[in-house]
């Protein structure tokens, strides 16, 4: 007579101590687990997506304007200060740390078409529909002192944009033509033009500071040299370019925001064809601004969204939008490379993270674990 005896080894299922995990017997026969590979693939994919899933890029909304935000400017010396101009002629100065408006002034009658800060940060310039260029103090007036500009220049035509030289007391305005001004004079030092259409935007090169770029309504982008007082080069695109921005790290590279839903990155030495065409927007691109590193830029569009593009990629890595955000008119990337500001039609300025999944603020005490590195085994021991 043969008797079968069940034999179990307690070492296979009994814990050595109460602190050990319970041992679960598993049969790893692949025939019993036909979906093992797809299941593990899904788990791995979800693990890599967690940062994107829990990303919260939107930080806050700065409200207070009574009309659409038409332009913005960064303070060259203060990270927490930003200026904004609205379609009702009102200019506001914001403190981003407190997320509140610290000063409001009625700068123009009609739209504020453009604004820029002086390189030293002591004053800023605005242009508007009332054909004036005004220079204002950055600091608020003393108690009892009236809010008045330092200088006012009355022009013959409407100015549509302004930008200040990065090192000298010189600024440029655009409208019917590009005018180069000295801060101490009421008439332009020289006037530059190439074509007969109105010019919508003008920008100084931050590295080669004597170079100037402009966008005109007749679809061309013109580059000027203010030392020679002559135009240098011209490139004509299929549709109108709204604005351009120079790369702060590469002197010859600039990116143009176009009406054909695309952005074009050019090397000014080879204007025959763009270095890269950046696609993804589904409506006209209205503004563009580079990050301080020069490796990425952010674009604002009529399609109610902003997108972040790597310079060397044709498609965006990030898209930001909210339910209430309307046509985005202006956008700025802060000088510390951490935040993005956008101004839109519905009178709000929104503050976003440049890196959507980045954790901001002070880390809690119990999360700061002391760690020791074992070079041989590369293990992290937290206590």
UniProtKB/TrEMBL annotation:
It comes from Apteryx mantelli. SMART domains: WD40. Pfam families: WD40. Gene3D superfamilies: YVTN repeat-like/Quinoprotein amine dehydrogenase. The keyword Transferase does not apply. WD repeats lie at residues 62-104, 278-319, 321-362. The gene is DCAF13. This is DDB1- and CUL4-associated factor 13 isoform X2. Keywords: Repeat, WD repeat. PANTHER family: DDB1- AND CUL4-ASSOCIATED FACTOR 13 (PTHR22851:SF0), U3 SMALL NUCLEOLAR RNA U3 SNORNA ASSOCIATED PROTEIN (PTHR22851).
């Amino acid at each position: 007579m043969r008797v079968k005896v069940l034999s179990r080894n307690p070492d296979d299922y009994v814990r050595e101590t109460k602190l050990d995990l319970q041992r679960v017997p598993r049969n790893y026969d692949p025939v019993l687990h036909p979906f093992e590979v797809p299941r593990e693939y899904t788990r791995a994919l979800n693990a890599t997506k967690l940062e994107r899933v829990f990303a919260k890029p939107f930080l806050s909304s700065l409200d207070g304007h009574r009309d659409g935000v038409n332009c913005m400017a960064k303070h060259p010396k203060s990270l927490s200060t930003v200026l904004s101009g609205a379609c009702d002629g009102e200019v506001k100065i914001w403190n981003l740390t407190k997320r509140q408006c610290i000063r409001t002034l009625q700068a123009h009658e009609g739209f504020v078409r453009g604004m820029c800060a002086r390189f030293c940060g002591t004053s800023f310039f605005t242009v508007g529909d009332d054909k004036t260029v005004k220079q204002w103090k950055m600091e608020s007036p003393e108690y009892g002192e009236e809010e008045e500009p330092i200088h006012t220049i009355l022009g013959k035509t409407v100015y549509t944009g302004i930008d200040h030289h990065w090192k000298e007391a010189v600024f440029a305005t655009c409208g019917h033509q590009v005018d180069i001004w000295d801060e101490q004079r009421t008439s332009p030092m020289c006037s530059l033009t190439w074509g007969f259409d109105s010019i919508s935007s003008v920008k100084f090169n931050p590295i080669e500071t004597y170079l100037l770029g402009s966008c005109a309504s007749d679809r061309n982008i013109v580059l000027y040299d203010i030392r020679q007082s002559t135009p240098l080069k011209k490139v004509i695109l299929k549709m109108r370019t709204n604005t351009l921005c120079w790369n702060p790290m590469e002197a010859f590279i600039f990116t143009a925001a176009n009406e054909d839903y695309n952005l074009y990155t050019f090397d000014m030495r080879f204007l025959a064809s763009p270095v890269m065409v950046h696609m993804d927007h589904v409506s006209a691109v209205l503004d563009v601004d580079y990050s301080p590193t020069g490796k990425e830029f952010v674009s604002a569009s009529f399609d109610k969204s902003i997108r972040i593009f790597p310079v060397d990629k044709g498609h965006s890595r990030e898209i930001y939008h909210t339910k209430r955000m309307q046509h985005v008119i202006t956008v700025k990337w802060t000088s510390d490379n951490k935040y993005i500001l956008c101004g839109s039609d519905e009178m709000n300025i929104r503050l976003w993270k440049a890196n959507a999944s980045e954790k901001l603020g002070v880390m809690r005490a119990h999360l700061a674990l002391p760690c020791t590195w074992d070079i041989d085994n590369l293990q992290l021991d937290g206590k």
